[in-house]
Structures are given as C-alpha cells and as structure tokens.
Amino acid sequence: MLAAGLLPAIARAQGDDDPAAASPDVEGAPEEDAATAATDEDERYEALQEEVRQLRGVVAGRKPRSFVSGYADVGFFVAQGDGSGFIEDLGPPAARFFPQYAGQFGWVFLGDILAPAINSRGEPADLGNPPGIDRLDLIDSNGAPSFIVNEVNLTLNGALAPTVLGTASVNFLPRTGTNFRLGDAFDVDIAQLEWQAGAQRRTSVFLGKFDSVIGIEYRSRKANQRFGITPSLIARYTTGTPVGIKVRSRLGPNDLVTVAGALTNGSSVIEPFHFYDETDSNAGKTVSGRISIEPPIPFMHVELGVSGLYGAQDRALDSRYPIWFAGADLQATWRNFFLSAEFLRGSSDGEVGPAVDPAHRVYGLRLNNGGYVQLIGRLSRFVGGLVRAELRDAFVWLGDPTLPGGAERLYVTKSWRLTGGIHVDVSDRIVAKIEYLHNGEYGGVPPIPNDVLTSSVVMAY
C-alpha cells in the first residue's frame, strides 16, 4: 500500500522536474517566485527520496532471512536371528570361547552391538537383553520384519548477519510406546553459529554443537546426504556432534590444503554410545583436528587427510586419564565412480580403581583396528550402486579388571562386514535405497546370525 501511494508521487515529482512533462499554467493562478518554487520542489523531492529509502528498508526487512528444510526417512527391514549382534560367553572356563577373561570380568559378550544396523542413524534391529544393564531399545524388533519411520528431520538455516550463519537441526524418532507412555523421541544434533571471516571467507569459526573434524564420514551421516543407508562400523567414533568451538580454514591456491581444529566438551563419538559428553563432567577439554590436501591430479579429484583427537575421558569426574583417536582417510572421484576409505585406532583407560559415582561410570576402549573401503558407482543418471568392506577389532569394558573380583563386563568384537546396495533417484526430492549387510566374525568369535536386509525412502522438503 505504501508503495502504491509513493509511486504516483514519485512520478509527479519526476514530471515536475522535467519541463516537457510540466502541466501548463492555469488561467488566473497567481504567479510564484521562481526561486521559491525551486526550493519547494527540492524539499518535496528530498522528502520523497527519504520515504523511498524507508520503504526499501521495510521491504528489505520483510525479505526471508531464514528457511526451513528437512526430510522424512521411512523404510522396511528384515533382520536375521533375534535382531541383535552379540552373544554371551557362558559356562566354565574350559567351555568358553575366551577362557582367559573368565576371572577378570563378570560378564563377557562377543560380537558387535551395533552391527545389525537398519538405518542411517546406525540403530540396530534389536539391542538384546544382556544381564546387569538397562538399555533404551527404541526399535526392539526381536527379529521380526517391520516397516519403520526411521527419522523425521527439521533443519533451520538463517543469515543472522552478513557473515554469520545459524543452523539448528532436530531429529524426531517415532517409536513404540508402552504403559500409556509415548515412545517417540527426539534429539538436537546441530545448533551452531558460523562466522565466515576474512574478505574471501576461506576461514569459518563455529560455535555450539557441530559436526566433528575426525575422518570424512560425518559429511554423509544424515539420510538425505548418504548415498547408501547404513553407516560404517567405525562411524560410532567419528560422526558424533560435540559441543564447543571449531575453526576450519582453506589455504593455498584452489584450496589446496584444509585445516580444521576443535575444542569441545567431549569426543566425536555418537551420543548413544559409551564415550560422549553433552555437558562436561570434568575440567579437561578435548582437542581434535584434521589436515587434508587435494593434490592437482589430472582427470580425477583426490583428497588425503589425517585426523586425531585427545582429551579427558567422557563422563569421568576427573581429567587424569585420556581418550584418544588417530586415523587417516582417502577420497577419490573419477568419472562416475567415488572411492572412499578410512582407518582408525583409539584407546581409553576406563575406570581405574573402584567406581566413585554410578551415574558417571567410565567405559574403557581398545580400538585395535577399524576401517572401511567403499566404492560408489553411477550406472545412469538415476541409478547407482554401492559396495563397502570393513572391519572392527575392539575391546570395550566397564570396571577395573585389576581389582579383586575383576571388572563388571567386557565386549569382545572381531567383526567384518560386506555391504551391497542400490540407490535410485525417483525425483529431485525422493530417493529409494536398499542394502544387504552380511556381518561376519573372526579371531575366535563364533558366527552370529546378524545379517540385515534394509530399505529406505528419503523424502526431502
């Protein structure tokens, strides 16, 4: 309305300034002094210009500075066995698979809890029913095939200032309720400010809850970003979203080198696993970083990176014992093929001495070897395929095995996995995927029936 009122006035003002467009004198009108008329016209013109400036400010203020996006991920899965990925090593020492741990740990479990993953969150078909622990099993399929709404994501992005961006991401998980309670859950995985510094904006400073700087898989951790469905066996260590401050900078010609570093409350492990702090329990902070190089190689794009993390153990009440990870990664793109690979090792001492606070018990970790090699190929504009080979050799335990009576529990994982998948772009905003995960064991761990066939349809909005 303001614009409609101003435009004729501006036209009149411009017409008055143009002698050819001026109205002829009306007979009998008093003759004005020329200087006075010019002054009045200038004042009216300046007033109109000020009104136009105010109008532009109003219009600029009404322009959308933020937008909403997200996706819905629905699927169907069939899990082998009871849907869980581990068994208990029971019986007298002579009858056990690993008799050397019989006197050191109260319970010994073999396999990988998260191996039978069914979605991009890495949730297993079933968490099983191990003794001595109460787990929140949101899927709890008991081996039954099921349709599922894996996740509904809502993402808010906003330009808060010329060089400041804000992002918040919330995931909603429709799950089964019991005893008149809703089983639905949600998590906030991103809540960050990004300041793009410098004239060329090659350096970004992040504050809040953000993606990690360990490895490369965090770039495709979400269902709408991942070509396939399930994460790797080592994604639990690298795709968590810690809280703190992060700096990333691109250096050299054509962004030859990228350097990233973060100071956070805890590690980059995913929140449902044993090694994560949302708010810190100790004074020590965790330092992590990655450096990568993209050498100019003809006919293909290659990125090589190394990364690491070091800090106080998550959930510990003191900072005396560290947790660390170190790894290397590779990405290569040639025509319609994309190759990626990661290798990772890590360690955490866990509890040393008797437990001080049951709410802050600290798990120990020996990630002896972990890694994957993945090849993605585009067969056409709409259809592609994926093959991934991986392994994880790890010990995870709770308690101090050197105390009288030993520690409480131990998880022995010597697992390998071969994954094959098909990706179909139904439209610009709908993607259909299917994967088969063949999980295997080695190194004395007996075979566990924990293969998974899973599918996903991701609808972006």
Please tag this protein with its features.
461 residues; mainly beta; Porin; 2 domains; 16-stranded antiparallel barrel; 11% helix; 44% strand
Blueprint of the fold:
Layout: H1 2-17, H2 34-62, E1 66-79, E2 86-88, E3 105-111, E4 146-161, E5 164-173, E6 185-197, E7 203-209, H3 235-238, E8 243-251, E9 257-264, E10 286-293, E11 301-312, E12 322-334, E13 337-348, E14 363-378, E15 383-398, E16 407-425, E17 430-441, E18 452-460
Parallel strand pairs: 3-16
Antiparallel strand pairs: 1-4, 1-18, 2-3, 4-5, 5-6, 6-7, 7-8, 8-9, 9-10, 10-11, 11-12, 12-13, 13-14, 14-15, 15-16, 16-17, 17-18
Helix pairs in contact: 1-2
Walk me through the structure.
The protein is mainly beta and 461 residues long. The protein folds into two domains: 2-61; 64-460, Beta Barrel (Porin), CATH 2.40.160.10. It has three helices and 18 strands. The protein has a 16-stranded antiparallel beta barrel with strand order 1-4-5-6-7-8-9-10-11-12-13-14-15-16-17-18. Strand 16 (407-425) and strand 17 form a beta hairpin. Helix 1 runs antiparallel to helix 2. The longest helix is centred in the first third of the chain and has 29 residues, at 34-62. The two termini are 33 Å apart. Mean pLDDT is 89; it is low at 1-32.
